[in-house]
Amino acid sequence: MLTQRRAFSIPEILIAIALSAILFALANGALWGVAKLSQNVMGTMQAERGLNFLNDQLRREIGEINWDGESSDEMVRAGEELLIFPTFRHEVIARDHVARGYVQVEWRFDHQKGTLFRKMKVLRLGNAFGRNIETDPVKILTGLKAVHFVKHNGKSWVPIRGAPSVLAKPAALGVEIVLADNDGDHPIFLPFPVSP
Prior knowledge:
alpha+beta
């Protein structure tokens, strides 16, 4: 005896497709959320590593600035978004290979790119003067809204404003950094003591 097979009706098929679409949309939304969270965490970790490097490097370099420069290349100069100074620091980090000696270090904020750059120029190799050996600018921090260098005059912190000019030795130097995604414009402040 032959039995009749019952087929799915059109409403049952439509309900199955609708349920599958809803489950797919929920799974896709969850995966997108996890991917976005991972991207945010990676960005935050990269910014934190950059800030830690900036803090460590500037603390060492500013602590070893030569404030007794004689030529214009050996003078400490600063502007609102620029700090240039000479140092004998031996472990200056650069992407390019630069012979160590007496070097000029430049920290510059590019407002249009939202990036803090660092470059070096060799002033002297041992007793000989350098031959304009210079590194390309290296990106230190990206995604910035503002970077301002400040100085401590012995009483309070004072912003360094205007075009770069020769800077007399302050009690301390500092940098204020505002991240581009910072909603409240609360700067991150990093102070650095100046060697006596």
